[in-house]
Design a protein that fits this description.
By secondary structure, the chain is α/β, with parallel strands linked by helices. The chain has a domain of 153 residues. The protein has 24 helices and 7 strands. A 5-stranded mixed β-sheet has the order 3-2-5-7-6, covered by helices on one side. A two-stranded antiparallel sheet has the order 1-4. One of its GO terms (biological process) is protein N-linked glycosylation.
Length: 582
């Protein structure tokens, strides 16, 4: 009997891979997490039950990413002016240009834009003049990329560490506010986030060469600065399969860089590398990103809690539980999660901070938090008695779904608050298509609300131009792409890299405005807005007043209290009143 038991334990049928370092992991995991079962039961489970299936994961992520694509707000004006507007110009030959796209500076890659044009162009043919549908078609494409990459990560975690850990991670990836919003944002940092999920998943699936290739795509096609976050997986992949991983990374990087330079030459009409220019500007002395705002060292900690609530706290505690759960999670899961700490520390040291800069590590927050919650019972088990089922261990097991439920409820509350509080700009601009009786060549004017402009995809064709009006802002604003000066190859003289306003950026004759977008806020002091006496509102939606609303009520949706305690302004679309003829 003893001999037969020994033979079953050493059976190669239970091994997840041919690696000599792997066989102990499923066995030790089932011993600790499923006491009462024999080791052969644990081995049989890992051999026959491969964890969460692809269909379940893809379906869950697909539903939530669809919801994100259709209801997500635009969180950053950079997303509009540096990505949606250049895409609109490539599709429709109109749109706003920022100084980063001036051929003099050439900081932004058109390769990233034309990658999304692959979806935008067919959508523009399919929907003709319905540009809003093209906008959402591109968003659905972003959601599809997110689904594919996150599903790979979840399935990899499930196969290597079990269903429970993968299920927790799947729930957080679906519902955590940070992932919900970042997954369908048109930003290079979001693209690097997709690559981070996919590369990490491939690494856990023992495909190091593919992991390195995907990391190279995330850095070069996405966000070059994210190279720091990809280092742990890349270096570990090289250590596992140096020749294959090195060739994969080198070929992918060389091909993408060469293609990027060719694309930049085509659009900027000069030999340059936007990847190199961006690194030079920000890293090697030319960068003055502090001109666009600075934040304190705790900015990302506060931001992380807002977007992930207790999930973020648990993620930061992963290093603390690692000595106890080392047998389960070291080294591979630790390698996958380590960019969370590296990236958070590095970005916290930078003066200029923005929420989107943390996007690349968002999936790792969910994985780290899931590992901590899954390890609750291990914190109280006797390491010499893995079958210990004392009251405190059983209580810790009960706390796992309680902690997960708390995270998911708070996440939904945060998501609901943001969507309902700040969705007015997208909805108000959609009203324009119903007022084409204003005539071709109408002018839409935007004052202090320029930074919430949702992109030219929401501007109907009958509107001839969108103009900014002076409402006190003294920084440099985007200008329309100038076909006369060369379009994408232009280096307009009104652009500078010092964020200094140009004399030409504002419309001087306000009588030329046909429509006006304005946010009216209730202020106890004189409001610095436009004279609205000559305008009639044709659309008005409530907009959460961040300055006057208490943080605890505006940050999370609490039924009844959210409406009662918060202060709202009105986001208005106005049309000029026609003067009666005498």
């Amino acid at each position: 009997m003893s001999l037969s038991t020994r033979q079953r334990r050493s059976s190669p049928l239970d091994l997840p891979s041919s690696s000599s370092s792997q066989p102990l992991e499923p066995e030790s995991y089932s011993k600790v997490d499923k006491p009462g079962r024999s080791s052969s039961d644990g081995g049989e489970e890992s051999g026959n039950d491969r964890g969460l299936g692809w269909f379940t994961v893809l379906f869950a992520l697909g539903m939530l990413r669809y919801m994100s694509a259709s209801s997500n707000i635009i969180h950053d004006c950079d997303e509009v002016f540096n990505y949606w507007e250049p895409l609109h110009y490539l599709l429709y030959k109109s749109g706003f240009q920022t100084w980063e796209y001036s051929s003099k500076f050439a900081l932004r890659s058109y390769l990233y834009i034309i990658f999304h044009e692959l979806v935008g162009q067919p959508a523009s043919w399919l929907y003709a003049d319905e540009k809003v549908r093209v906008f959402y078609a591109v968003r659905l494409f972003l959601g599809l990329l997110s689904v594919t990459s996150d599903a790979t990560l979840v399935v990899a975690v499930s196969r290597k560490y079990g269903k429970r850990l993968a299920s927790y991670a799947l729930a957080m990836l679906c519902l955590a506010s940070g992932c919900f919003f970042a997954s369908t944002s048109f930003l290079p940092s979001s693209f690097s986030m997709y690559a981070m999920s996919l590369s990490s998943g491939l690494f856990l699936l023992e495909k190091p060469a593919w992991a390195v290739a995907v990391a190279a795509v995330g850095v070069i096609l996405g966000w070059p600065f994210s190279i720091l976050a990809f280092l742990p997986v890349t270096l570990s992949s090289l250590a596992k399969q140096f020749k294959q991983a090195f060739l994969s990374g080198a070929v992918t990087s060389t091909a993408l860089l060469a293609f990027s330079i060719l694309v930049d030459h085509y659009y900027y009409q000069r030999w340059t590398s936007s990847v190199f220019n961006l690194l030079m500007y920000n890293v090697l002395g030319g960068g003055e990103s502090h001109l666009y705002g600075t934040e304190g060292p705790l900015f990302y900690i506060r931001n992380g809690f807002n977007n992930f609530n207790f999930c973020f706290i648990f993620a930061l505690l992963f290093l603390g539980i690692l000595p106890i759960a080392r047998k389960k999670y070291a080294p591979d899961l630790f390698i996958v999660i380590s960019p969370l700490y590296i990236w958070l520390a590095f970005m916290s040291l930078q003066l200029h901070k923005e929420e989107r800069f943390l996007y690349p590590i968002y999936p790792l927050v969910c994985i780290a938090a899931s590992a901590v919650i899954e390890s609750f019972p291990d914190l109280f088990r006797d390491k010499y008695n893995p079958y210990n089922n004392s009251i405190i261990v059983m209580t810790a097991k009960i706390l796992r779904p309680v902690a997960l439920s708390l995270i998911l409820c708070a996440s939904h509350s945060r998501t609901f608050s943001l969507i309902n509080g700040y969705a007015a700009p997208l909805e108000v601009y959609k009203i324009l298509e119903h007022h084409d009786d204003a005539g071709t060549g109408s002018v839409l004017c935007v004052g202090s609300e320029w930074h919430r402009f949702p992109s030219s995809f929401f501007i109907p064709n009958y509107i001839g131009e969108v103009r900014w009006i002076d409402d006190g802002f003294r920084g440099l604003l985007p200008f329309p792409f100038n076909a006369t000066l060369g379009g994408t190859s232009a280096a307009p003289p009104y652009f500078n890299n010092k964020n200094k306003a140009s004399d030409e950026q504002y419309l001087q004759d306000l009588q030329a405005c046909t429509f006006l977008v304005e946010l009216q806020l209730n202020r106890p002091y004189p409001y610095r807005g436009n004279d609205l006496s000559t305008w009639e509102p044709i659309a008005a939606l409530p907009y959460l007043d961040r300055e006057l609303s208490p943080a605890k009520y505006r940050s999370f949706f609490i039924p009844y209290l959210w409406q009662q305690k918060n202060v709202f302004g009105m986001y208005k679309l106005l049309k000029r009143v026609s003067k009666p003829k005498r």
